[in-house]
Amino acid sequence: MLDTALIFDAALLPAMLIAMLAGILSFLSPCVLPVVPPYLAYMGGVSVSEMEETRAARKRVFLSAVFFVLGLSTIFLLLGLAFSTMGRMLLQVQDWFVIVAGAMIMVLGAHFIGVFRIGFLDRELRVDAGDKGGSAFGAYLLGLAFAFGWTPCLGPILGAILSLAASEADVARGTVLLAVYAFGLGIPFLLVAAFFPRLKGVMGWMKRHMDRIEKISGLLLWTVGLMMMTGQFAAFSYWLLERFPALALIG
């Protein structure tokens, strides 16, 4: 018989996988992907053409992108800390909380799929960080501003991960989920900064298939919500342990 403690530890793995996918899908969202090249160029204090043509410009942009990712990660880690603390406070009603959170995530998923549209989720609020381009500290400030300013756009996917963090009712585990989400969102920024000329075609293809990507995001959210409402994360954890016995060494 499998140890209950091991199941509890392994249960975090599917949530981490979902958090990673959610970060990547957030990067691919319609209000992020199209502005990535000019945003990176601005942070590095270069033009988009310079970023494409010269290695020195890409090195400068990459350094700025690192501090940018650190800035947005700071906000997401603080959000993970706050929401997992809230989940801990609601521990006595955690079962009901998870069901309600799952239902809300399913609604957000339906928005992305196109079953219906929620008006305020189609708008974005951008925070003006001023003239901060061209310096590491400025890039960090832009990362903070990005995490705040694009929240309405990232809201459905980010909300799902925050709900997962709150359902963990454990500060460390909830913070880990938001760290993984920040990793999934931040790493593509670094890849584009480092390999922009090679990735232009891929990014163009993604822009042309934005509707399909958005529907995939919605399907992911809807599935996560359903799993939360029906308690299928535990069942998924059993499946992971049976399929990959080495995971039993975790914890």
UniProtKB/TrEMBL annotation:
Chain ranges passing through the membrane: 12-40, 61-84, 96-116, 137-166, 178-199, 219-241
Membrane topology, record value: Multi-pass membrane protein
GO CC annotation: membrane
Keywords: Cytochrome c-type biogenesis, Membrane, Transmembrane, Transmembrane helix
Recorded superkingdom: Bacteria
GO terms, biological process: cytochrome complex assembly
Subcellular location: Membrane
Primary location recorded for the protein, binned into one broad class: membrane
Domain Cytochrome C biogenesis protein transmembrane: 16-229
Name of one Pfam family that matches: DsbD_TM
Entry's family note: Belongs to the DsbD family.
Protein name, as recorded: Cytochrome c-type biogenesis protein
Taxonomic lineage of the native organism: Bacteria, Pseudomonadati, Pseudomonadota, Alphaproteobacteria, Rhodobacterales
